[in-house]
Amino acid sequence: MDRKVVLITGGSRGIGAATAVLAARKGWNVLISYQHQRAAADAVVNQCQQLGAQALAVQADMAEEAQILKLYAALDQQFGRLDALVNNAGVVDTAQTLAEFSMQRLERMFRINTIAAFVCAREAVLRMSTARGGHGGAIVNVSSIAARLGAPRQYVDYAASKGAVDVMTLGLAKEVAAEGIRVNAVRPGLIETDIHASGGQPDRVQRLAPNVPMQRGGTAEEVADAIVWLMSDGSRYTTGSLIEISGGNL
Question: What is the dihedral angle through the alpha carbons of 187, 13, 91, 183, rounded to the nearest 10 degrees?
Answer without folding.
Answer: -40
